[in-house]
Amino acid sequence: xxxxxxxxxxxxxxxxxxxxxxxxxxxxxxxxxxxxxxxxxxxxxxxxxxxxxxxxxxxxxxxxxxxxxxxxxxxxxxxxxxxxxxxxxxxxxxxxxxxxxxxxxxxxxxxxxxxxxxxxxxxxxxxxxxxxxxxxxxxxxxxxxxxxxxxxxxxxxxxxxxxxxxxxxxxxxxxxxxxxxxxxxxxxxxxxxxxxxxxxx
Amino acid sequence: xxxxxxxxxxxxxxxxxxxxxxxxxxxxxxxxxxxxxxxxxxxxxxxxxxxxxxxxxxxxxxxxxxxxxxxxxxxxxxxxxxxxxxxxxxxxxxxxxxxxxxxxxxxxxxxxxxxxxxxxxxxxxxxxxxxxxxxxxxxxxxxxxxxxxxxxxxxxxxxxxxxxxxxxxxxxxxxxxxxxxxxxxxxxxxxxxxxxxxxxx
Amino acid sequence: xxxxxxxxxxxxxxxxxxxxxxxxxxxxxxxxxxxxxxxxxxxxxxxxxxxxxxxxxxxxxxxxxxxxxxxxxxxxxxxxxxxxxxxxxxxxxxxxxxxxxxxxxxxxxxxxxxxxxxxxxxxxxxxxxxxxxxxxxxxxxxxxxxxxxxxxxxxxxxxxxxxxxxxxxxxxxxxxxxxxxxxxxxxxxxxxxxxxxxx
Lengths: 201, 201, 199
Fold this sequence. Notes:
B: mainly alpha; two-stranded antiparallel ribbon; ubiquinone (chain C); transmembrane helix (chain C); translocase (chain C); transmembrane (chain C); transport (chain C)
């Protein structure tokens, strides 16, 4: 058979594409439940981490997540963890970054006196600059930070603000715009959580 | 025809795809700020280069000349999608960190280059070996860059802190320009050694 | 969810040209960048071709992604589909340019075959997908990235013309020195970060 003929060329191309796509869809569908579970575990881990619960391993995460109650108020979904006092509430957010959406979870105490923690789920900021919002030192600034005048102030760039009472965090060196966007996200999300909980900021 | 040993020496050193041919750096320099990401990414490249070389070599007599390039691209894309599906299912965190760069393995010129230059005219097993060693040569250089960037940028090696706590991380190592500088320096060192070898031989 | 994620098109455009230059901060399109930047008139032609192809393919891939792949739940096939559509667009552009203007073909057309394997093209399509851009944002991002690439290759070819004649260690000559030069360019481009607060 002539391997350079037009019918062979077309037939071959179709056949090989068909074969590949068949195999790929098989691989995709067999792994789909696993991918779905990974997504769920990742989401739960982020919420737990914002709520200040340390976890490791998928089983422990699912176990710990049973303590978390999903509640809906005023059309806003919150995740509540009982701490014996006012409760801690986490809210998932999607805000606008410099390059694309920044997805994360912000957790606060029930009386909105303090933040409990921040977790960044997904972002596409510049690696090494705005991308550093995922680093521990940046997120750690939001751990039990007092909320002053209903907002979290993003101050001048620095190496991380350790004072938990002043209601401000340091911006990231060289990533002024990403830091500003984070400030906007905090403000919007705090307002939303306040209205959902019916608490004055 | 060259022996497996010669092929290895050539691909790992004298004809190293990166510092002799400056090929295929696009898809991988961006992930060299952490060693673990680089490791997974370059393992993906080794896998794709090896398997697509093997496949092209097995099918070389069947592929019509007119569609040779597009069929090769299809083969490469097929293996890249497999890598992507596997990462999503089994290493979700790394899959997220690598983001679009997994897909960019397709346009890694090394893979296409080896398929054209070697697999087209050599038996399957030797082609597989050629693919593995080319990928390893690539991996070696990128892991070196990642090692320096992670060590100086974060003070860690594969995520384990190794430098004393007083160490001040070099911000530049986290940002893109450092990858260019390091690659330039590696090419410089590599060529100096090679020129000496050439002079004594 | 898109209410808040709308980026200012103006800042997206300038950021994709300068501070987040596809080449200098995402390392995309390096292969042809290093090879072609030896010669400034080829650099110009290739830069132009990359800009045109980037703008067109990003838009087409956006349409394919949102009107074919997502409705059919075939997003996992996007790598194959994107690369094939890029190859097709490049081929078509080559034919059109060949028929329309011989002069343009000589300036631009001859670089088109090089472009299918240029990682910047596929890269922009993948970034467009992962950052969930709208069609308008995708086109702006594609155009901006292309212009940024063009600018970077023109600048580098100008610098290389000078450095070619300077005396450096033989081992550093060529690719080594070029990489270090690109490193300095990348630093300069990123240095504009503070200036671009146009929002």
